[in-house]
Amino acid sequence: MKEFFDYNTNFGHRTTILEILIPIFITFTIIYCISRFRYKIKTNIKIDKLFRICMLVSLSIFYISNYILLWMQTGFNIHKLPLQLCSISALLCIILLLTNNKKIFNFVIFSGVLGGIGSILSPDVSCSWMYYRYYQFMGMHSLIAIVPMYYAIIYKYLPSKREAINVFIIIQTLAVIMGILNTIFNTDYLYVGFSGNIGPKGTIIECFGESTFYLINYEIFIMSVFFIWFILFKLIFYKNYVIKNK
What we know:
Radius of gyration: 18 Å
Transmembrane segments: 20-38, 50-69, 81-99, 104-122, 134-153, 165-185, 220-238
Structural class: mainly alpha
Order of helices and strands: HHHHHHHH
Distance between the termini: 54 Å
Number of domains: 1
InterPro entries: CHP02206_TP0381
Strand content: under 5%
Pfam family, one: TMEM164
Keywords: Membrane, Transmembrane, Transmembrane helix
Protein name: TIGR02206 family membrane protein
Number of helices: 8
Helix content: 55-70%
């Protein structure tokens, strides 16, 4: 049992296609079910509350247990702070579930959905299904995508163009701050590197080149994904949840 919670034993394992596809399938199945049964959830306060509590408890356990186990086994230092975008998104999703705050939703509908799905498709950790780290990683990243989609479908939260631009500016500001931090302390938060490619091995970011080319390609990639998702989200949401309800 002790080995199951070990964060070091499975080092070097390359996550298999099946270990990636199963969480993706579960994530999209849950989002589909939320959409499919949205009217029942909307009209039943108890079901809505139960669903949010389940997501809150699960996400909190994944988030807190990760850092407790990480710090207990490898020590606490500047390299292991919850400053990656997905960690920030997880904390904000927890707050969103507690407060239903629309401003927080505006942020996590981008950082949570894109970061969560992107991390599952291209995980930056070498984790195996035989260890808790795999379930924690996949579970947390799945939930930070599911939570904002739940609020979009059930509560009809939808970011405006201005709100989307504000979120993009916030992410850019965070990137600059983390880039400075990474340069000073040799960390890899948000994978912003001013002196070279600090993208995790085995992910698409690793292919962005070095030095200036890395930053330019990274910026183009983030900007493209961000605004493509905004357009798709608006189109899908308007077609399925606005027109049908008129």
